[in-house]
User: Fold Energy transducer TonB from Novosphingobium olei.
Amino acid sequence: MAYADQQMSGNKITALIVVALLHVVVGYALVTGLAYSAFKKIKEVTTAVKIDPEKTPPPPPPPPPKDAPPPPPIVAPPPPVSFNTPVVNQVETVATPPPPAPPVVVLPPPPAAPPPAPPPPTPGTPKGRPGEWVTTNDYPSRALREEREGVTGFKLDYDATGKPTNCTIVRSSGSPDLDEATCSKLMSRARFKPGTQNGQPVGASYSSSVRWVIPKD
Assistant:
C-alpha cells in the first residue's frame, strides 16, 4: 500500500505541474491575442499527455561496495613547457688603451761655473824721479823763442822688462812741438819696475802730464 500511495502522489504532482503549465500558456495567449491558437495547443497537449498509473519508476542503482577502492582522481596533463633560451646581449668589450705617459722633462745640467778670475796684476812703479824725465833743458828752441807754454798729458805703455813701448798724447798743450818733445824724452828716459800677475812680471801703462814753462833767468 505504501508503494501504491507513493505512485499515486507522483502522478498527482505531475498532473498539477501540467495544469500549472496550461494556465501559464493560456494566460500568455489571452494577453497576446492568441487565445484561440493557445486553446488548440492546450487541447493537443492535454490529449498527448496520458497518465499511466500502473507504470512504476525504475529502481535506484545499488550502492557501491564498501571494500571497492575509490576511482583514481582525474589528473589533467601538465601544460607543455617551452624552454626558450634567453637571448643574451653580447657586450663587446673594447680595451681602452691607457693614457700616454707625460713627457719626461730632462732639465739641462746647470752651466759650469766660470773659472775664477785671475787676480789683478800688481801695478808697476816708476824707477827714479818722473819729474826729471823731462826738464826745461828739453824746451824746443822755436817754442822758447815764441814763448809758448802749455801742459801735455800722456800715457806711456811699457813691457814686462819695464821699458816704454808706446807714448800717447791724451791731452795736447796746443803746441805740436811741445807734445812731440814730451813723448820723445819719455821714450828714451822713462823706466819702470814691472808689476806681477801669478808670480810673473807683466807690462802695464803709466799716465801723467808735463808742464812746459819758460824758465826765468
About this structure: The chain has a mean pLDDT of 78. Residues 171 and 192 are 22 Å apart (CA to CA).
